[in-house]
Design a protein that fits this description.
The chain is α+β, with helices and mostly antiparallel strands and 900 residues long. It is built from 29 helices and 31 strands. The strands form eight sheets. It has an eight-stranded mixed β-sheet, with no helix packed on it. A five-stranded mixed β-sheet has the order 17-18-19-21-20, covered by helices on one side. The chain has a four-stranded antiparallel β-sheet with strand order 10-11-16-13, with no helix packed on it. The longest helix is centred in the middle third of the chain and has 21 residues. Bound molecules: tryptophan (TRP) and zinc ion (ZN).
Length: 900
C-alpha cells in the first residue's frame, strides 16, 4: 500500500492541535494558473503545541510566511499531502500561504474547477486542500473572508459564501468582490463561483420578519427553467420554521446550477452549488420524478443550513450526523407536499434496493463507519438512507412532541459546534426521558437485522401470541452481532379486515385508551427473542407487521397467499397494503424463476383485476383510491430487488419471470388496463396548462404503469396507443414513458416505430443536455440483445464525454447498474467493458470511477462462471499502477484483500 492509501480509524481521533479563528483568502482567477493567497489566524488548541500540520494536495506552493516573515525551505516540509511547520510560535500567529492551481486541468471536479467555462468549487469532503494549505477537517471552524478577482467580461459574476461587503474594478480589465461569512465553518463548506451567469431573484420573509434575498444563478439559456426550484426553496424555508423552528440566518441565499458535478448538490454556507439536474425544469423537459427530485434536493441542501452547517460533524465518521438527519428532514418535507404513504413507499423501495444489498455485500459498513481509506467512498446509502431510518426510529420512539423537544435541545446545545452522532442521541435520550444505550448499537453495527416472526392463537383463552426472534448476519470485519433495540409497529385485523383494539396481557382494561387509538401498537424489541400476548380476541386475527416500515429490517413471517391478498385489500396501513402486494408478487416471481413452466395463478390475476377495478373512475375525485398509490401497488419488484432475495442470482431467470408475468397480466387484463388508461388519458398539447400537482402526477404514474403492462402484450392497437401518446403528449413524463414502451416492443409487432421515435426525440432535444441524458440512458437500459454494441457505439457519439458525470451515469451507469440482463451477459463482455471504462475514467475522475464499480463488487452472489469473470476484471483493475485511493479501496474491499 502506498502512502496515499492509508487507512483512517475512528478510534484514532484526536482534537486538532491548532485552530484557525479567521481565514482571509484572495483568489485571482485564471484558467490554468489561479493564484490563491491566504492568511490564517492560528492559535494552539492544546497545551502541547507541537508542529503545525496543514493539508495541501495537487497545488504548487509559492510562499509560506509566519507573522509576515517568509519561511525558507529549511523551516518547513511539503509533500505527501502535508505542509509541516515544525516550530510555530507559542502565541497566536498568522500564517500566510500562496499557492497556484489549475482549474482548467481539474477533471476530478474536486476543489476549484471549470464547468462550461465558469469557475466553481466542490470542497466536501477534502477538496479545500487542493486550493490552499489548511487544516482540512470539519472540527476546525473559521470565519472566512474571500476576495475573488476575475476578468470583467469572462466573469461578470463573482460569488463566495456570506455577504458581499465590497467590490471594485482593477485597471487591467479585471474586477473584484469581497465576501464575508460571519458564521464560523469548516473548510468543506467553502465555496466560490465566478462566470457569465444570470440571476433570478425572489424574496422570503422569515417568521421574525427578516427579508431574505433568494438568488438562483444559471447560464443565460436556462433562465426560463428555475420557477420550480425557487418555489421549492420558499416552501422548504417556511416548512423548516414551522416543523423544526429553524429560521434562515444570512441576508442572501444563493444557488448556482452547474452542468459538471459529481453528486446531486452541495450545501456550502449561503452559496449552494447544484448539479443542474436538480434545478432546471420545464414540463417539456423534466419528468414528474425530476420535479420531485428537484424539490427534495433543494430542501435537503437548505435544511443542511442547520443540520450540517450551524451544527457540523466532528470528523467524517460522523457524516450521518448531518446526512442521516437531513435526509430524514427532506423525506418528511416531501411527505408533507404530496402523499405521505406514497413517499414512504418510495423511500423504502430505495432503502431495500440500494442499502440492503450494500449491507449484505463486501462494502458493508455501519452508519458510523470505523475506518476508511477514501472518505468519498462513504457517501453511501447506509450513511444517508439507513442513517435517516435511525433518526426516524428515534422520532417514533419519542413521539412528535418529545422529538421536537429533542431537536430543539440539539440545536440549542450544539449551535456553532462540530459534534458526533452520539451527541445527537444524547439529546433524544434526555428530551425523551428514555434509555437509548442499546439503541446506539444501530450506529456501530453493520448489516440488516432479520426478524423471524411466529404466532399462536389460543381459542379457549382468546389470546394471540407473537414471538419475534432477531439476528443480524455477519458483515466483513464484524462477525458477532449484538441484539438491537427495534421499534416494531403491529396491528391485528379481524375477518372483515377491520383493525382490532390491541390490549396486551397484564394491561388492565380500565387503563386502556379508547379502541380507535390502539389499533397500531409500537412494540419494542430488545432481547434476541421477545413474546407479546394480546388478549380479548374472539377469533384468530391476521397480523399486520412492521407497519409503516417502523425499522430497517428484513421481516420473515409465514403468510399464506390468501393472507397477503387479504392484507393487500384491507390493511388500514397503506404501506403494508403495498408491501403485501409486493411480497405476493415477489413470491410468485421467485417461484417462476425456479420453475420455468409455472403459469400465473388465477388468484394473482384476480387480485390485480380487483386493484384495477378500484382505480378512480373520475380522475379528479379525491375520494377515490389514490392513483399514485395504486401505481405503486401495480409495480412489480425490480430485477435488482429480486436478485437480492436469491442465494445465487439467476439473471436471465429473473428477467424472464418478470417479463412473463407482465405479459400475462397485460394480455389477461387487457380490457381493464385499457379502461384505466383511457379514463386517465389527457389529450396532448391542446389541453392547455399542464398540471404539476401531486394528484395529476399520480394519474400520469398510474396511466404509464398501465401502458407498460399493455406494451408487454402488444398488438397494432397498443402500438398506436403508445405512438399517440409519444406524438401528442405535452410533457416529458408521458413522452419518455411512451418512448420506453415503443422501444421495448418486438420489431415484428411495432416495426421501426421505436427507432423512429428515438430519432425524433434526438432531433427535438439534441441541444438540451439533461434531456439528452435520458436519450442515452434509455438506450443503455434496453433489454435488446445488441445493447452492449449500441452502448459502445454511443461512446463515440459527438455528444458523449467522459468528462461529464451526468453523461457518464446516463450511458455507462445506466448500462451497468440499470440493465442487469445485458450487463451480466454470460460471456462477460459487460464486465470487460465496465473495467475498461473504469480504467479510463480513474485518472480523470476517481469519485465517479469508484461509484461506477459498484455493480461488480457483488460478484460473490452470482454463479461460478460469472463470479470468475467479474473477479478477473477486478483483479485486472487492481494490478494497474497509480490507481486512485477511491478505486483501490472499492476493488480491494470487494476482493476481500484489505483484511489483515
Ligand atoms: N453534502 C452533499 C449532500 O448530501 C453531498 C456531496 C455533494 C458530496 N458533493 C459531494 C459528497 C462531493 C462528496 C463529494 O448534500
Ligand atoms: Zn446532504
Amino acid at each position: 500500500m502506498t502512502a496515499q492509501k492509508k487507512e483512517t480509524f475512528l478510534k484514532e481521533y484526536t482534537p486538532p492541535a491548532y485552530l484557525v479563528d479567521r481565514i482571509d483568502l484572495r483568489v485571482e482567477l485564471d484558467p490554468r494558473a489561479t493564484l490563491v493567497q491566504s492568511r490564517l489566524q492560528c492559535r494552539a488548541n492544546t497545551a502541547a503545541g507541537g508542529p503545525l500540520v496543514l493539508d495541501g494536495e495537487r497545488l504548487q506552493l509559492l510562499r509560506v510566511a509566519i507573522d509576515g516573515v517568509d519561511l525558507g525551505p529549511e523551516d518547513y516540509t511539503f509533500g505527501n499531502g502535508q505542509l509541516v511547520i515544525p516550530h510555530p510560535p507559542a502565541a497566536p500567529f498568522e500564517v500566510a500561504i500562496h499557492t497556484r492551481i489549475d482549474p482548467e486541468g481539474n477533471t476530478a471536479l474536486e476543489g476549484l474547477y471549470r464547468s462550461s467555462g465558469n469557475y466553481c468549487t466542490q470542497c466536501e469532503a477534502e477538496g479545500f486542500r487542493t486550493i490552499t494549505c489548511f487544516p482540512d477537517r470539519p472540527d476546525v471552524m473559521s470565519v472566512f473572508t474571500t476576495t475573488v478577482v476575475g476578468d470583467r467580461t469572462a466573469c461578470p459574476v463573482l460569488l463566495a459564501n456570506g455577504n458581499c461587503i465590497d467590490r471594485g474594478d482593477l485597471p487591467d480589465g479585471r474586477h473584484w468582490a469581497t465576501w464575508h461569512d460571519p458564521f464560523p465553518k469548516p473548510s468543506y463548506l467553502f465555496a466560490l463561483v465566478a462566470g457569465d451567469l444570470v440571476c433570478l431573484t425572489d424574496t422570503f420573509t422569515t417568521r421574525s420578519g427578516r427579508s431574505i434575498d433568494l438568488r438562483i444563478y444559471i447560464e443565460p439559456r436556462n433562465r426560463d427553467k428555475c420557477d420550480h426550484a425557487m418555489r421549492a426553496l420558499k416552501k422548504a424555508m417556511r416548512w423548516d420554521e414551522e416543523r423544526f423552528g429553524r429560521e434562515y440566518d444570512l441576508d442572501t441565499y444563493m444557488i448556482v446550477a452547474v452542468d459538471d458535478f459529481n453528486m446531486g448538490a452541495m450545501e456550502n454556507k449561503g452559496l449552494n452549488v447544484f448539479n443542474s439536474k436538480y434545478v432546471l425544469a420545464l414540463p417539456e423537459t423534466a419528468t414528474d420524478t425530476d420535479y420531485e427530485g428537484i424539490e427534495a434536493v433543494i430542501a435537503h441542501e437548505y435544511f443542511h443550513n442547520w443540520t450540517g452547517n450551524r451544527i457540523t460533524c466532528r470528523d467524517w465518521f460522523q457524516l450521518s450526523l448531518k446526512e442521516g438527519f437531513t435526509v430524514y428532514r427532506d423525506q418528511e418535507f416531501s411527505a408533507d407536499q404530496g402523499s405521505r404513504g406514497v413517499k414512504r413507499i418510495e423511500d423504502v423501495r430505495l432503502l431495500r434496493s440500494r442499502q440492503f444489498p450494500e449491507d449484505a455485500g463486501p462494502m458493508a459498513h455501519p452508519v458510523r463507519p470505523d475506518s476508511y481509506i477514501e472518505i468519498n467512498n462513504f457517501y453511501t446509502a447506509t450513511v444517508y438512507e439507513k442513517g435517516a431510518e435511525l433518526v426516524r426510529m428515534q422520532a417514533g420512539l419519542l413521539g412528535p412532541e418529545r422529538f421536537r423537544k429533542g431537536t430543539d435541545l440539539y440545536f440549542e446545545r450544539f449551535d456553532g459546534q462540530a459534534v458526533t452522532t452520539d451527541d445527537f442521541v444524547a439529546c433524544m435520550e434526555q428530551a425523551g426521558g428514555l434509555d437509548l444505550t442499546q439503541f446506539r448499537r444501530w450506529y456501530a453495527q453493520a448489516g440488516t437485522p432479520v426478524l423471524e416472526c411466529a404466532d399462536h392463537y389460543d381459542a379457549d383463552a382468546g389470546t394471540y401470541t407473537l414471538e419475534i426472534r432477531q439476528h443480524t448476519p455477519a458483515t466483513p470485519g464484524q462477525a458477532d452481532k449484538q441484539p438491537l433495540h427495534i421499534p416494531f409497529a403491529v396491528g391485528l385485523l379481524d375477518a372483515q379486515g377491520r383493525d382490532l383494539p390491541l390490549r396486551l396481557a397484564g394491561e388492565s382494561a380500565a387503563s386502556e385508551p379508547t379502541a380507535a387509538g390502539v389499533c397500531t401498537r409500537m412494540l419494542e424489541l430488545r432481547a434476541p427473542v421477545e413474546r407479546f400476548t394480546f388478549v380479548g380476541l374472539a377469533a384468530r386475527p391476521v397480523p399486520s407487521l412492521l407497519r409503516g416500515f417502523s425499522a430497517p429490517v428484513r421481516l420473515r413471517y409465514p403468510y399464506s397467499d390468501a393472507d397477503l391478498t387479504f392484507l393487500m385489500a384491507h390493511d388500514s396501513d397503506g404501506f403494508n397494503r403495498w408491501d403485501a402486494a409486493q411480497t405476493l408478487a415477489q413470491r410468485l416471481l421467485l417461484r417462476m424463476v425456479e420453475e420455468e413452466a409455472l403459469s400465473v395463478p388465477d388468484s394473482f390475476v384476480e387480485a390485480f383485476r380487483q386493484a384495477l377495478k378500484e382505480a378512480p373512475v373520475d380522475a379528479s375525485a379525491d375520494t377515490q383510491a389514490d392513483p399514485a398509490l395504486l401505481a405503486e401497488v401495480l409495480t412489480l419488484p425490480s430485477e435488482g430487488y429480486l436478485a437480492d432475495q436469491m442465494d445465487c442470482v439467476d439473471v436471465d431467470g429473473i428477467h424472464r419471470a418478470r417479463e412473463t408475468l407482465a405479459a400475462t397480466l397485460g394480455a389477461l387484463l387487457r380490457e381493464d388496463l385499457l379502461a384505466v388508461y383511457e379514463r386517465h388519458w389527457q389529450p396532448g398539447a391542446e389541453a392547455g396548462d399542464y398540471d404539476l400537482s401531486p394528484a395529476a402526477a399520480g394519474r400520469r404514474a398510474l396511466r404509464n404503469c398501465v401502458l407498460g403492462y399493455l406494451g408487454q402484450a402488444p398488438d397494432a392497437g397498443i402500438v398506436a396507443l403508445a405512438q399517440r401518446q409519444f406524438d401528442t403528449a405535452n410533457n416529458m413524463t408521458d413522452v419518455i414513458a411512451a418512448l420506453r414502451v415503443l422501444l421495448e416492443m418486438p420489431v415484428d409487432v411495432a416495426g421501426d416505430a421505436g427507432e423512429r421515435a428515438l430519432a425524433a426525440f434526438y432531433r427535438r432535444w439534441s441541444q438540451e443536455q439533461l434531456v439528452l441524458d435520458k436519450w442515452f440512458a434509455l438506450q443503455a437500459q434496453s433489454s435488446r440483445p445488441d445493447t452492449l454494441a449500441r452502448v459502445k457505439g454511443l461512446m463515440k457519439h459527438p455528444q458523449f464525454s467522459l468528462a461529464n458525470p451526468n453523461r457518464v451515469r446516463a450511458l455507462i451507469g445506466a448500462f451497468a447498474s440499470g440493465n442487469p440482463l445485458r450487463f451480466h451477459a454470460e460471456d462477460g463482455a459487460g464486465y470487460g467493458f465496465l473495467a475498461d471504462r473504469i480504467l479510463e475514467l480513474d485518472p480523470l475522475n476517481p469519485q465517479i470511477a469508484a461509484r461506477l464499480l459498484h455493480p461488480m463488487t457483488r460478484w460473490r452472489r452470482y454463479d461460478p462462471g460469472r463470479q470468475a469473470l467479474m473477479q478477473r476484471q477486478l483483479e485486472r483493475i487492481l494490478e494497474v499502477d497509480g490507481l486512485s485511493s477511491d478505486v483501490y479501496e472499492v476493488v480491494s474491499r470487494s476482493l476481500g484483500k484489505d483484511e489483515g
